[in-house]
Write a structure and sequence with these properties.
heterodimer; A: 269 residues; alpha+beta; Jelly Rolls; 6-stranded mixed β-sheet; 4-stranded antiparallel β-sheet; 4 helices; 21% helix; B: 422 residues; alpha/beta; Rossmann fold; 2 domains; 5-stranded mixed β-sheet; 9 helices; 16 strands; 34% helix; elongated
Chain lengths: 269, 422
């Protein structure tokens, strides 16, 4: 009887343990439409237009332009950048479009999957590109180029274009969203400061001065940069400890049999 | 009496201080804003071909005039706008004179909209298309000040004043290091004009647009003027050397330099223990280069041991190739070494190769960012704080817990049995 109660409690705990696992698989749906998304794109790393994840940045440009945006990405997320290019009607031949993502150190980041490069036929109305990065880690060794928390640059351009199609008007939409990977990607260690270009210069300035000064990158995630100490590993480990304790009690009670030895008559008999 | 005098003196001093306090900062601010005000020079082709009536049924000239009027209305206050013409004055056939025909229609400075509009209204399509010389003059117009500088070139025909290649002119202007961008717009362009204007734009990091309709022209010029008004970080010019010894020392900031083909550039950065060096470099392709290229950024010690490197390679059409590196320097073990900075040498090399017939000088533009920040703590475990996660962890913990419970139970039964027997 007691054993069943113990195992029942253990099963209940197990059911509870599913919740962190279930939470992992749901994407972090935090599309904050607040704030204004840029309607212009930059033309270099230096002039990249900044936008928050979940916003849709738009721009009107010309074929052949190199368009730059930047957005902040924090540890534990796996950002996906999607771009839609509305192609000019007057285009006479096929063009190849490409979206590249660079980290705060201007290192090109690999796309796990997604159509990073696409060739649009002469008559195509639009072309859609996407790039899913690796999970952003809180820390990595200096020799690796793993994605780290900080600014990410998006560059959109044509990599192959007929001369006759240079300079035609195009409309562009860019969007970035992160899937929350959770504790599975929680690594030890963290950067003292996120990989934001120019952060050493901006942190030296007084708060009053910096408002007027131009900076390389000023945005941070909606809820600030994560401090890096919380992950669902705490829940898993604590739960494991509780379960181990319960299992210990269960094992202990097994060796005691079910209460009173059979040869001893019950009291009052 | 004395008190009253003191009081009067005090009031006087106070008043003086107040007026000074009001006056001094305001002039300082004014100076600062004019020094950093963005400058835009609109460079309009007024050559004979602008008479052609092929923009929405209008002549190119009248379309340009209407567009200019709208742009002048929409120009932000802080932008200092100027207008220069090319081919506006000499109608003759003498090539030499025709190729010098460029004039400042409205000087670069605070904008008087009515005056500027009146000036634009007087234009009639006349002469040659001396793009190269006009670009040089337009760059001179913009000289001075630390704000962003932009030339917007609007033309309907390619340069008629060879051998001075406007593309090379643009590159030389950019190499002067005054941070100038040239955007080009082609009115109903031919294939040749497209190539020439986009070459000019790419030489300075600008953009090229083909214009077929008047509203496209207005929108685009407005967009470019607004872009000039956006505040951007202006990089500092440095000159790297070909060895670490004698290389310029960089602190946190943004820098530019020029690097020729098959050249290397060295810089130094001082990094204290417990700090992290972050450096990135991008090399822009401002001319025709072969379609396979790369860049290598190495951080080495003064004794030439490589610490870490960043490398990137690519192919196809591109504006820049860039890479970066991180070097967190470990905390000092002795207290004495805490403030001794290590000199890290940064070496930049690129593997662009010039396409046939392209000039090698001036070098390709480099952009370098350096950030020296606090370093991160060394991680001691792969997982966060060495914590566990997942069903295997729970399984193992439950199993071990259960076995421990059973063992403990047996032990205590055995102990009770032993105690009973005794």
């Amino acid at each position: 009887m007691r054993i069943t109660r113990v195992w029942g409690a253990a099963l209940l705990m197990l059911a509870l343990a599913v919740s962190p696992a279930a939470a992992d698989s749901s994407p972090s749906a935090s599309p904050s439409e607040s704030g204004d998304a840029p309607t212009e794109a930059g033309t270099s790393f230096r002039t990249a237009a900044e936008f928050e994840q979940g916003m849709t940045a738009t721009a009107s440009a010309s074929t052949g332009d190199y368009l730059y945006w930047s957005f902040p990405a924090d540890a534990g997320g796996r950002p996906t950048v999607r771009a839609t290019v509305k192609l000019p009607e007057a285009a006479g031949s096929a063009s190849t479009w490409q979206v590249d993502v660079y980290d705060g150190l201007r290192r090109r980041q690999a796309c796990q999957y997604g159509a990073q490069t696409r060739t649009a036929d002469a008559g195509a109305a639009s072309v859609e590109l996407s790039c899913t990065l690796r999970t952003v880690r809180a820390w990595s060794e200096q020799w690796s180029d793993d994605p780290l928390p900080g600014t990410y640059y998006v560059r959109l351009t044509t990599t192959r274009l007929a001369t006759g199609d240079l300079g035609l008007p195009v409309g562009v939409e860019v969007r970035a969203e992160s899937k929350d990977i959770g504790g599975a990607a929680a690594v030890d260690g963290s950067l003292a400061q996120p990989l934001v270009p120019g952060i050493a210069v901006t942190s030296e300035q007084d708060d009053e001065d910096s408002s007027a000064e131009a900076v390389l990158s000023s945005l941070e995630p909606d809820d600030g940069w994560a401090s890096g100490w919380w992950s669902d590993r705490w829940v898993w480990t604590a739960l494991g400890a509780v379960l181990a304790a319960l299992a210990g009690i269960g094992g202990y009670s097994l060796t005691r049999g079910s209460g009173r030895p059979t040869r001893v008559p019950p009291p009052g008999a | 009496m004395i008190t009253r005098q003191r009081l009067a003196a005090g009031v006087f001093v106070l008043l003086a201080a107040l007026t000074a306090g009001i006056a001094v900062p305001s002039t300082a601010v004014a100076d600062e804003t004019t020094a950093t005000a963005p400058k835009v020079n609109l460079l309009l082709d007024v050559s004979g071909s602008m008479r052609a009536k092929d923009i929405d049924g209008q002549s190119r000239m009248s379309a340009a005039k209407q567009a200019f009027n709208e742009v002048l209305d929409a120009t932000p206050e802080e932008v200092q706008l100027g207008i220069r013409t090319l081919g506006a004055n000499y109608p003759g056939d003498d090539r030499k004179t025709g190729c010098k025909d460029t004039a400042q229609l409205y000087p670069v400075g605070p904008l008087d909209r009515t005056e500027a509009k009146t000036a634009v209204a007087t234009l009639t399509p006349t002469g040659w298309t001396p793009i190269g010389p006009a670009l040089l003059k337009a760059a001179d117009d913009l000289e001075g000040g630390e704000g962003t500088k932009r030339i917007v070139l609007i033309s309907d025909g390619e340069d008629t004043c060879a051998p001075l290649d406007p593309c090379e002119v643009a590159r030389e202007i950019a190499a002067k290091g005054i941070g100038l961008t040239i955007d080009t717009l082609g009115l109903v362009p031919s294939a040749k004009l497209r190539v020439q204007l986009s070459c000019i734009a790419e030489a300075t990091g600008g953009t090229y647009t083909s214009i077929e309709h008047r509203d496209e022209l207005t929108d685009r010029v407005n967009q470019l003027v607004d872009r000039a008004a956006d505040p951007v970080v202006v990089p500092k010019a440095v000159e790297g050397t070909d060895a670490c010894a004698g290389a310029p020392t960089l602190t946190s900031g943004l820098f530019t330099d020029r690097e020729e083909f098959n050249q290397q550039r060295w810089y130094r950065v001082d990094v204290k223990p417990g700090q992290e060096l972050r450096a990135s470099v991008s090399v822009a392709a401002d001319r025709d280069v072969n379609p396979h290229y790369g860049v290598l950024l190495r951080a080495v010690t003064v004794k030439n041991r490589e610490i870490v490197r960043g490398e990137a390679a690519g192919n196809g059409r591109t504006d820049v190739i860039s890479t970066g590196l991180r070097y967190p320097k470990a905390e000092a073990e002795d207290e004495e070494d805490e403030d001794t900075a290590e000199t890290v040498c940064l070496q930049v090399t690129h593997s662009y190769a010039p396409a046939g017939g392209v000039k090698a000088t001036p070098g390709l533009p480099l952009e370098i960012t350096v950030d020296v920040v606090d370093g991160p703590d060394q991680a001691t475990d792969v997982a966060s704080f060495g914590l566990g996660r997942g069903w295997w962890l729970l399984g193992v913990l439950v199993l071990v817990g259960f076995l421990a419970g059973v063992l403990w139970g047996w032990l205590s039964r055995w102990r009770v049995a032993v105690w009973r027997t005794n």
